[in-house]
Amino acid sequence: MEEPGRIHFLDLGAGQNPDRIKALAMRHPDRRIIAVDIHPLGDFEPLPPNAVYVSSNVLQYLKTLKEKSVQIANADFLLNEMPDKEIMELIRHIKKALAPNGRFYISEDRQNVEDIRRMLHQHGFSTRARELSAEEAMEPKTWFTQERIHHPHRWNESRKNMQVTWPVRIVAVKRQKR
Ligand SMILES: C[S@@+](CC[C@H](N)C(=O)[O-])C[C@H]1O[C@@H](n2cnc3c(N)ncnc32)[C@H](O)[C@@H]1O
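Above are the sequence and the S-adenosylmethionine SMILES. Below is the predicted complex in structure-token form.
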């Protein structure tokens, strides 16, 4: 078992479907997986013992974490729901919470990607970005990515005012200081 307090995968704005953390926790029973969303989880079967769902504002939750305790943080289609000021605050907290060489993965619409990368660079992250493949979009089982890629007509129907683009994955790395 990993060091107490250490989080292997932290999914921010995870949504109310626990399939992803459940699958990850079952595949890696020795790792701690945490999902955070402002909404409560609802009525699902119990999660494996190494997975936890926290109902909280992500900014409040991040303040409670130990420095350098998180290996991978993830946010799929969360940042487009937050004002820039809050995104900057979120990135600052994640930078503190990530272990050296820790990763912050972000999936977003293409039109938001360059602004987000700029904010990450301001906090000293190095980043790369690429379009998700259709196979990857199935693998981590996130509803938003799957709908966009595999059911674009259904998605466009339900979001008439939103311009939908193929999702892009940003990988931000907190480089170890030499
Ligand atoms: C577009 S959904 C994406 C859900 C999931 N990540 C996915 O890809 O299927 C955004 C989620 O972020 C959550 N959310 C938005 N702002 C939040 C905040 N400040 N703190 C915690 N959760 C938040 C919403 O409740 C919602 O479940």
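The pocket of S-adenosylmethionine is lined by residues 13-15, 36-39, 57-58, 76-78, 81, 142-145 (CB under 6 Å).
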